[in-house]
Amino acid sequence: MTDVGLIGMTSLVMAGITIAIGSIGPAIGEAIAVAKALGALARQPEERNTITRTLFVGLAMIESTAIYCFVVSMLIFFANPFWDYVIKR
Amino acid sequence: MDLMGLKAISPDSVVLWQWGFATLNATIAFTWAVMALLVATAVLAARNLTSDVHYSRWQNLLEIVVGAIRGQIEDMSQRRMDPYLPFIGSLFLFIALSNLLAIVPGFIPPTGSLSTTTALALWVFIAVPAYGVAHLGILGYLKHYIRPSVFMLPFNIMGEVSRTIALAVRLFGNIMSGTKIVAVLLAITPLFFPVVMNVLGLITGLIQAYIFAILAMVYIASASRAREEKEEEPSPQEKEARAKSKKPEKQGNAGREADADPSDTGVEKQKPAKKGERKL
Hints:
The structure holds two protein chains of two kinds. Chain A is built from three helices and no strands. Chain A has a single domain, classed as F1FO ATP Synthase. In chain A, helix 1 (3-43) packs antiparallel against helix 2 and helix 1 (3-43) runs antiparallel to helix 3. The radius of gyration of chain A is 20 Å and the shape is rod-shaped. By secondary structure, chain A is mainly α. Chain B is mainly α. Chain B has one domain (11-232). Chain B has helices at 26-45, 57-77, 85-100, 114-136, 138-143, 153-188, 193-231, 236-244, 248-258, 261-279, and strands at 15-19, 22-25. Chain B has a two-stranded antiparallel sheet. In chain B, a hairpin with a 2-residue loop joins strand 1 and strand 2 (22-25). In chain B, helix 3 (85-100) packs antiparallel against helix 7, helix 4 (114-136) runs parallel beside helix 7 (193-231) and helix 8 packs across helix 9 (248-258). The A-B interface holds A 49-50, 53, 56-57, 60, 63-64, 67-68, 70-71, 74-75, 78-79 and B 7-9, 72, 75-76, 166, 169-170, 172-174, 176-177, 180, 207-208, 210-211, 214-215, 218.
């Protein structure tokens, strides 16, 4: 296999694997967080504002790990230095 | 979307105008557009402010926006935070407006560029020690770094740097992913589905603006809170907890930070009194 084919294949496969594995953990984490928050809302509806705000901030924190993986896979797709190097050569 | 091709990951690479060394890329142009829109709206709305019963619609809009931001800040920090209102409010308004304008055809949100979000995150990085020093004094603020013990110093510094990076990359990733997904879908299923994703992008954009502002508020509040907790009268529950622990002096700080509930109730007890003051 040529260098171009090898680099292209590895990049695409790794980008897919990155976003696939990277989204599993945050998905489970967000599900747990939302479930707990719903339970808390059902118990104490009067604390709605605090719970919702904390939930949003927490979700953003959890989600940022998935976003990192997404950014990395996007970089592999659109700004891959190895691919540019091979193409230029 | 037309300006930025499918391959371009950041609006930095879209050059609108070039003259010698000076290049005007899309990020700068749209940042200035958003800023101009904000300033123009604020100037027009604030031109004839009145405390009369009859006031203009623009003043009503302004009052709602400022009141909502102030309410959120007060809820978050449990006390009056008017000095922080301009900073947090401008962060929120700028990010929210530039994310919401993404539905305008031809507009590329400047928050989808890593340079813009890094600049905003650097402002938070600077504002945290600035407000902390203004609140606690230089020594008081620096003590905050060795809070549980001296060994935590490198971790505190690392935490401060890494949360700044996280702040920048989170906003960039969310907005960039929104625009990219719409661009990809436009190529695959042109008519209806991109609209749905665009609506989803609006929701994420607003939530991300909210989260950026709230996180900045949390960081600033946690840096300038340290001494006030010490000055507060310890509540009875806290006294009991301290009597129970065997080394009251050494574990005092860690224990107090671990169970935040007693101090929270203490703050909430004070809150009605403060509201009364404000009405007076």
